[in-house]
């Protein structure tokens, strides 16, 4: 009997890995598109979850900081194959882009990319992609005047107080404002569902999440190890990002570019290249880690930035039913999401726009790329290829 269970479990884990890897190789287009791919594969084709449970899981992952699509994938893996299923689901979805970006980083490392035309093209692609992300997010996350005001305040704070602490402070402040301002919000259904994770396990994961957030900076100061410093920076970025992968850009830029651990050209080149690969935007960390410290750095950065996602998903699943019924907590996250829009707009201006748009022709090209994404609904891969070719041609003019 136990042997049959083990065979069934192994078959389930192999199936999870095959399906998630297929998604990891084909899921272009950002978090929203990823959720569409997940729905098609996991719900319509495999029928691993029903529509209602999937909607609840998406709601949970939108509620938490971190990469929403990766967290949904982890959650589906947990429901299908337990904690090990969640880990395997994550590996299948994430590893293809991690490997591709580490290889790209190692290739770029040996080249002088500062004046390359294709790098300039990728910078302009970054302008179009972030502008496209802002357009979609602003409609959903800042629909009323109070949330628009929070977004404007976030822009001012982040641009005028340029430290990594500024982003943390404005997100916490926005959460506090939202907690009181939107406390009567009662949107959404109150259905319930369960996961194979105990409350004891949930408490342990939440404690570990906050423990690492507090202890890593102290360990960084005590050891003076560049690997500990790198792990701390990426862990903190993965812990404090609300609203999807694009928002991780300003946090990581503030951590590594001013300290000259990575050049602005290499940073934006990697950001542009990340648009060309499938999978979550957070795999940008693998590129940055590899540029700074080779394969080891890429692996360490990937573990650090995604670890908070695991701890938060495993930690909140057992308590989600009670948490999502709390109107004040929903209000706090509404405020935080509005601040995310402001942080994203500030990132669009500096460093993305200021380093990419130098001549009028650069702006014209950015508008064309933005239109390809927004109005002509072209694949991000096509937009990236267009950006590389166009950037090369612009430098030759």
Automatic annotation (TrEMBL):
It is a multi-pass membrane protein. It comes from the Bacteria. The chain crosses the membrane at residues 83-106, 118-138, 150-181, 201-222, 234-252, 295-320, 332-349, 380-396. Its main location: membrane. It is found in: Cell membrane. Keywords: Cell membrane, Membrane, Transmembrane, Transmembrane helix. Pfam families: Chromate_transp (PF02417). Belongs to the chromate ion transporter (CHR) (TC 2.A.51) family. This is Chromate efflux transporter. It comes from Ureibacillus aquaedulcis.
């Amino acid at each position: 009997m136990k042997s049959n269970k083990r065979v069934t479990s192994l078959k389930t884990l192999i199936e999870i890995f095959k399906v998630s890897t297929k998604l990891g190789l084909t899921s272009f287009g950002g978090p929203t598109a990823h959720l569409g791919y997940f729905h098609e594969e996991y719900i319509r084709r495999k029928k691993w979850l029903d529509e209602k449970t999937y909607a609840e899981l998406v709601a949970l992952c939108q509620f938490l900081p971190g990469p929403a699509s990766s967290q949904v994938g982890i959650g589906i893996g947990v429901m299908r194959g337990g904690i090990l299923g969640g880990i395997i689901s994550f590996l299948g979805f994430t590893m293809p882009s991690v490997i591709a970006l580490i290889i790209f980083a190692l290739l770029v490392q040996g080249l002088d990319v500062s004046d390359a035309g294709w790098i300039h093209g990728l910078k302009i692609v970054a302008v179009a992609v972030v502008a496209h992300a802002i357009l979609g997010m602003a409609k959903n996350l800042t629909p009323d005047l109070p949330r628009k005001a929070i977004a404007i305040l976030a822009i001012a704070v982040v641009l005028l107080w340029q430290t990594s602490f500024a982003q943390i402070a404005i997100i916490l402040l926005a959460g506090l404002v939202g907690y009181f301002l939107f406390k009567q919000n009662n949107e959404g259904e109150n259905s319930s569902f369960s996961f194979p994770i105990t409350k004891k396990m949930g408490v342990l994961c939440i404690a570990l999440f906050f423990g690492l957030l507090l202890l890593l900076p102290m360990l960084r100061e005590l050891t003076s190890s560049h690997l500990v410093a790198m792990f701390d920076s990426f862990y903190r970025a993965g812990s404090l990002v609300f609203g999807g992968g694009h928002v991780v850009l300003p946090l990581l830029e503030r951590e590594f570019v001013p300290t000259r651990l990575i050049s602005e050209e290499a940073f934006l080149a990697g950001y542009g290249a990340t648009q060309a690969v499938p999978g979550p935007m957070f795999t940008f960390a693998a590129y940055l880690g590899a540029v700074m410290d080779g394969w080891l750095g890429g692996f360490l950065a990937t573990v650090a930035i995604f670890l908070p996602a695991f701890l938060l998903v495993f930690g909140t699943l057992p308590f989600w039913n009670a948490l999502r019924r709390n109107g004040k907590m929903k209000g706090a996250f509404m405020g935080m999401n509005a601040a995310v829009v402001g942080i994203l707009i500030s990132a669009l201006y500096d460093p993305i726009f200021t380093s990419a748009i130098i001549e009028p022709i650069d702006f014209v090209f950015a508008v064309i790329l933005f239109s390809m994404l927004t109005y002509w609904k072209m694949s991000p891969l096509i937009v990236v290829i267009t950006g590389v070719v166009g950037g090369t041609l612009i430098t030759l003019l």
